[in-house]
């Protein structure tokens, strides 16, 4: 080989090595991923079999990198997926172990999805709040325990926080209301206790707030009505008390309001019956008094469930003026009198009116 050819060969080899280095992930990110993997045990699918070699930016299952920085940007591991690896195995995933704090070394991490593995336990690493680019935390469907990190409000870019169907305890951190970009909050089916933050209304970008099946106490903050994008609010199956703020019925896009199975009392605000809410479930509380006779053309309900309360008196005749009522449940109250004729009553079954004081008329027995 001539001197010129040798120099050309060395130059080409150097360029190749430099290009390969630029295209692959940093050694620090690779080490963090391998430490993360070491804390988990996945016995059936072999999803970590692809985590080999020096370049974790390419062909590592569930891992992707930022195109410019070549740093790890996304970890997306779902235990219920349509990926061929699941179809070939003919089963959903099962994984045990815990989430290693080593993920906090992935300084450019944007999304962390470790969902529906059923057996992952342990706490959410507190250091996760030090990741300034983190937008998505999705840990649904595991056995995560411990509390939500107290300073989670540091994650200014956070848009999705989903830790539903776990064993998370403690209170909702006060700092959570600092998440000004948060759009989806799902804390369902955990063991969260204590009151809702009074300034929950600071989450102005929030469109879904799902907090059912916990041990949340106290009252419903009036500030929620300031979340003008909120479409779905589910606070059912908690221990909330007091009255419903009338301001909830004045929210422009609130379409679903589930407050069933709490300890709410008093009268239901008239505003709820002439609002944008189309799915309203207030069953299994301690509401009482006459049902307000305020229904009209703006009343449109796919579901209106007022069962298992202490309402008395007649069924409001104005219900027949509602533009639509798909499912109505007034059972298990103390209502009395003749059931109005015509829509929506002509398509409802007897179970919608059962277990009241003295209701009569179709679909129940004839009035005496």
TrEMBL record:
Keywords: Leucine-rich repeat, Repeat, Signal
Residues in the signal sequence: 1-24
Domain Leucine-rich repeat-containing N-terminal plant-type: 27-66
Organism superkingdom: Eukaryota
Keyword Phosphoprotein applies: no
The keyword Repeat appears for this protein: yes
Full protein name: DNA-damage-repair/toleration protein DRT100-like
Upper taxonomic lineage: Eukaryota, Viridiplantae, Streptophyta, Embryophyta, Tracheophyta
């Amino acid at each position: 080989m001539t001197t010129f050819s040798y120099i050309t060969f060395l130059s080409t080899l150097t360029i190749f090595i430099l290009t390969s280095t630029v295209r692959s992930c940093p050694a620090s990110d690779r080490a963090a991923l391998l430490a993360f993997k070491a804390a988990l045990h996945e016995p059936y699918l072999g999803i970590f079999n692809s985590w080999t070699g020096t370049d974790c930016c390419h062909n590592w299952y569930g891992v992707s990198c930022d195109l410019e920085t070549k740093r790890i940007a996304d970890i997306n591991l779902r235990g219920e997926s349509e990926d061929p690896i699941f179809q070939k195995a003919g089963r959903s995933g099962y994984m045990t172990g815990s989430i290693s704090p080593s993920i906090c070394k992935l300084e450019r991490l944007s999304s962390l999805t470790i969902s529906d593995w059923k057996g992952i336990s342990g706490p959410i690493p507190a250091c996760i709040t030090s990741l300034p680019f983190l937008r998505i935390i999705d840990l649904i469907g595991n056995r995560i325990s411990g509390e939500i990190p107290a300073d989670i409000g540091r994650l200014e870019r956070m848009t999705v926080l989903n830790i539903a169907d776990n064993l998370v305890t403690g209170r909702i951190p006060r700092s959570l209301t600092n998440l000004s970009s948060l759009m989806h909050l799902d804390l369902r089916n955990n063991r969260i206790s204590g009151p809702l933050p009074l300034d929950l209304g600071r989450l102005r970008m929030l469109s879904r707030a799902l907090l059912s099946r916990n041990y949340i106490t106290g009252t419903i903050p009036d500030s929620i009505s300031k979340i003008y994008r909120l479409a779905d609010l589910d606070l059912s199956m908690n221990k909330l008390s007091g009255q419903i703020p009338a301001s909830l019925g004045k929210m422009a896009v609130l379409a679903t309001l589930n407050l069933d199975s709490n300890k709410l009392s008093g009268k239901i605000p008239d505003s709820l019956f002439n609002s944008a809410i189309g799915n309203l479930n207030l069953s299994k509380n301690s509401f009482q008094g006459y049902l307000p006779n305020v229904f009209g053309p703006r009343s449109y309900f796919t579901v209106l469930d007022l069962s298992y309360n202490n309402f008395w008196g007649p069924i409001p005749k104005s219900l027949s003026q509602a533009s639509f009522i798909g499912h109505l449940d007034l059972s298990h109250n103390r209502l009395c009198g003749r059931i109005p004729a015509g829509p929506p009553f002509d398509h409802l079954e007897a179970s919608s009116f059962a277990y009241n004081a003295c209701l009569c008329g179709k679909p129940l027995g004839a009035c005496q």
